[in-house]
Structures are given as structure tokens and as C-alpha cells.
Write a structure and sequence with these properties.
There is one protein chain. By secondary structure, the protein is mainly beta. The protein folds into 2 domains: 48 residues; 314 residues. It has 4 helices and 33 strands. The strands form 4 sheets. It has a 15-stranded antiparallel beta sheet that branches. Strands 6, 10, 14, 15, 16, 20, 21, 23, 24 and 25 form a 10-stranded mixed beta sheet that branches. It has a 4-stranded mixed beta sheet with strand order 1-33-27-30, with no helix packed on it. The longest helix has 25 residues. The N terminus and C terminus are likely disordered.
């Protein structure tokens, strides 16, 4: 499909009406020309039933707020914090390096979300901690980490509570044995107390240097599907966390899926009435307590207790997505290292996946190099607008379910064919071009099914935010 920029075409029309207002005949000709061009544009819209536009990121269409830009001399500010080993993977730090003719700059942005999904595919992986074989051995962790923020009222004053949450797969690379846990912490000097929350887990004192407070932990039940099993490679592990509010109390659900379906193994309720619940927050400009970051991390690291491990062979891929209100969407920029996790890993080289379109990174054995993987100068967005209550977009064999008439998908710049399927299997293939830092907009008409509707009032509990619930009414007369 040919790309049309309606803004540009409309701008070219306006001077015709300005320069010829002094002559009635010429003005009529101008008006006629305008009508012809508008009719041509409407004919294009009618023929394709879609609009392809190209717009810069905006808060209204994207949900991400650009904060500001800061000059810096080199990228060492973002690629070196003096640690011996970092957790390595795909991390949204809420900031990116913007390259220009006038030099590099740091651009900061922020957003909040109710869901994060980490996807890791392992083709091969071998690790070992040779200096601590008895305690660590060949164990490694895969961590989905996020920062939960909400406000509460205490003694008549509003204050902010900040929790660091982890959804973790523990993997022994000897035998590929896996089990799942979650942790919840508070950044010092804040202190997590027993009365702060309730869930399936327990409170304990952390075996980590320079951390004197308690933390919450929960192991998934041993008999849950996919837990305490040996994986057959290639294997895909998904870690998923969702934030919601029940009776004004923030609540987090922890999930995993390693081939046996998505399993919720812990629900944690915070015992405080939230005056405002921000969910999971990414903000590159502000610092969390203790000089930590408001970021979202999907990383490999040592398994526990602030310990590190070393990779001896690896072939993995990773994806990190956030819920934008309509669909799970890939992050727009990423670094390959985390900063909040005490554990680290050496010998894992994380790089951006070759131009496969879908936002993905690859991990292989090699010298780790803490750096930016990609930015909005490499990625763009496909925004599909329709009136359909839900549908699916397929690109390069990757499927994106969306709801409420809109899908927003992050892709590397390039040309793609997107298959859009709406309710009642209304399907359309569209060819699109994605430009770095921009949004390409496609509008697709949705034909409402011509059938009677019945309004039902239902109360549904136990359903994760963003999950589509479909009811099929079966009657021989309808």
C-alpha cells in the first residue's frame, strides 16, 4: 500500500485559497481544485478503507511522556557504574542516547503500566560459579523485575510507597531443572515490615550484604504444572506480573509459563488503602530510594544472595513487553544491563537481534559489554485503529492480541506486511513502512455484525487485566 501523508497534502492545498482571493473566478477555480483533491483523498480512503500516516511520538497516542534531554560528553554515564558483574538482558531504563550532528544527548521518558511480560527462549545454556560451587554451582536466575508505586495517607499526610518486585525462574544448567519464586523488597532506607502485605509466601531477613531489612518471598507449589521439572531445549519461559486494585488495596499477581500454560502461583495484597495506584513505573529522570532506578528488567543473573555466576556457553533470545491499555507492546528502547539487582553474571554478551522486526535481543557466550541495545532512533510504532472490540495482528509469525479498537506495536524500522483479524474473522493484509522515532497509523473499517444483541450484566472475578473474555450466544433462532 502506498504511504499517504494527509497532513502534508492538506498543507499544500491551503495556499491555493490564500493567493487567489482577489479574483472571484480564480477563487472558484481554487475551491474546485480543493474539492477535487479532497475527493481524490476520500476516494483513496474509500478504496483502501485505511489511512497510513507518519507522526512523531505523542503522549496521547503512545502513552509515554518525554521528559527532557541532557547533553553529555560520552556514553560512559549510561554504560558503566563500577560493578564487577551486572545482571544482563533487556532493560527499559526510561532513558536513551539520542545521536545528532550536535553531539549525543540523553533523552528521558516515563510511563506506568499494569502488566509486564518477559519472554526468554533458551537453545543452550551452561553456567558455573567455580569459586562457590557448593552454594551456587550451576544455578542461574532469570528475573523479571519492576518497581511498584502507590500513594497512601499516613497521619493525615500523603506519602509514596515504593516496592521492588521480582518474578524469577531458578534454573540449574546441569539437567535444566527449573522452579519459580517471587520476591518483594523495599529500597533502603525504606523498611519492609510484616504488616505491609499478605500472600502465599513468607517474610524473612535478606542474606545480602548491606541490606538489613526484611523481604517477602514465595515459592510456587511443587505440584504446579511446569514447576520443578527438567526442560527440553529449545524451551521458552514466560514471566508475567500484573498489578490491580481490590477494594482500594494494591494487588500483584505473579505468573510463569514454561510450556504448560500460564500459571498464577502467588497473589500479594498490600494492606494499605491506596489514594493513587501508579502500577509499575518506568522513569529515567527520577531516582528511587537508595539511588535505585525506576526501570523494568528482564535479566540473567546469579541465582540468589547477591552472588554472581559465569556463562560458559549460551544461545538465548529475550523480549520485554508492557501493557499499553490495548495490547502488550515491546519497549521502545533498551540497555543490556540492570542496576537494581544484587546478583550479576559474566560471560554473557547481549546484542540487539538482527532486523527481525519484532523487538528482541540475543544472548550468547562472550565478553559482556554494558551498552545501549536500541533506541527510538532504531524503532518505530505501528498504530492500528479500528472500531472492533478485539482482534489480532500478525507480523513475522508474531501475534499481538488487542482490545478496544486499537493496537500499538513497536517494531524495528523497515517494511512489513501485517495481517489484521477482527471479530467474526474479518481479515485484512496491509503493507506498512515503519520509520524510526515515528508512528505509522493504519485505520481499518470494522463492519458491525448484523445480528440481535442482548445486554447482560455479569460480575467476573479472577480474570487478569487485559485478558479478553468472549461469550458466545447459541440459539437456533438467532
Amino acid at each position: 500500500m502506498e504511504k499517504k501523508d494527509l497532513k502534508k497534502e492538506t498543507f499544500n492545498i491551503l495556499p491555493l485559497m490564500v493567493f487567489n482571493v482577489n479574483e472571484k473566478r480564480n477563487m472558484l477555480i481554487s475551491i474546485l481544485a480543493v474539492l477535487i483533491i479532497i475527493f481524490s483523498i476520500l476516494s483513496i480512503y474509500s478504496e483502501y478503507n485505511e489511512y497510513a500516516g507518519n507522526d512523531m511520538y505523542t503522549q496521547e497516542t503512545y502513552g509515554i511522556t518525554i521528559l527532557n534531554k541532557t547533553n553529555f560528553a560520552n556514553s560512559s554515564e549510561l554504560t558503566n557504574s563500577g560493578k564487577n558483574a551486572y545482571p544482563m538482558g533487556i532493560v527499559d531504563q526510561g532513558r536513551e542516547i539520542v545521536k545528532s550532528k550536535n553531539g549525543n544527548m540523553i533523552e528521558y521518558y516515563k510511563y506506568n503500566t499494569t502488566e509486564l511480560l518477559g519472554n526468554v527462549t533458551i537453545y543452550s545454556l551452561k553456567t558455573n560459579n567455580a569459586t562457590d560451587e557448593q552454594y551456587i554451582g550451576t544455578w542461574v536466575s532469570i528475573q523479571l523485575n519492576a518497581v511498584l508505586v502507590f500513594n497512601v495517607t499516613e497521619n493525615g499526610n500523603e506519602k509514596q510507597e515504593i516496592y521492588w518486585v521480582q518474578d524469577v525462574a531458578m534454573l540449574n544448567t546441569t539437567g535444566n531443572y527449573v522452579f519459580f519464586v517471587d520476591n518483594i523488597w523495599m529500597f533502603p532506607p525504606q523498611v519492609l515490615e510484616k504488616g505491609n502485605l499478605t500472600g502465599n509466601g513468607y517474610m524473612a531477613y535478606a542474606p545480602i550484604k548491606n541490606y538489613s531489612g526484611m523481604f517477602y518471598s514465595c515459592n510456587a507449589y511443587t505440584d504446579m504444572p511446569g514447576n520443578y521439572i527438567s526442560l527440553n531445549y529449545p524451551a521458552t519461559i514466560q514471566l508475567f506480573i500484573s498489578s490491580t486494585e481490590v477494594n482500594s488495596k494494591p494487588e500483584i499477581n505473579f505468573y510463569y509459563d514454561d510450556g504448560f500454560g500460564m500459571q498464577c502461583f502467588d497473589t500479594v495484597t498490600f494492606n494499605a488503602q491506596a489514594t493513587k495506584d501508579y502500577g509499575f513505573v518506568v522513569n529515567g529522570l527520577e531516582k528511587a530510594p537508595g539511588n535505585h532506578m525506576f526501570d523494568a528488567e528482564l535479566v540473567f543473573a546469579g541465582p540468589w544472595g547477591g552472588k554472581n555466576t559465569t556463562v560458559y556457553s549460551a544461545n538465548t533470545t529475550m523480549q520485554l513487553q508492557f501493557w499499553n491499555g490495548h495490547n502488550l507492546q515491546g519497549i521502545i528502547s533498551a540497555f543490556n544491563y540492570g542496576v537494581n539487582t544484587a546478583e550479576g553474571i559474566s560471560g554473557l554478551d547481549i546484542t540487539a537481534q538482527e532486523r527481525e522486526g519484532n523487538i528482541m535481543v540475543a544472548g550468547k557466550q562472550g565478553k559482556e559489554n554494558c551498552t545501549e541495545l536500541f533506541s527510538s532512533q532504531d524503532t518505530g510504532n505501528l498504530l492500528i485503529e479500528s472500531g472492533a472490540p478485539f482482534g489480532t495482528v500478525e507480523i513475522n509469525n508474531e501475534s499481538y492480541d488487542f482490545s478496544n479498537g486499537l493496537a500499538n506495536i513497536t517494531l524495528f524500522s523497515g517494511n512489513y506486511t501485517a495481517k489484521v483479524t477482527l471479530i467474526d474473522n474479518q481479515t485484512k493484509n496491509v503493507n506498512v513502512e515503519i520509520f524510526p522515532g515515528n508512528i505509522t497509523v493504519i485505520k481499518i473499517a470494522y463492519n458491525m455484525p448484523n445480528r440481535p444483541f442482548i445486554t447482560l450484566s455479569l460480575l467476573i472475578t479472577g480474570i487478569t487485566t487485559g485478558v479478553a473474555v468472549i461469550f458466545v450466544w447459541k440459539n437456533k433462532n438467532h
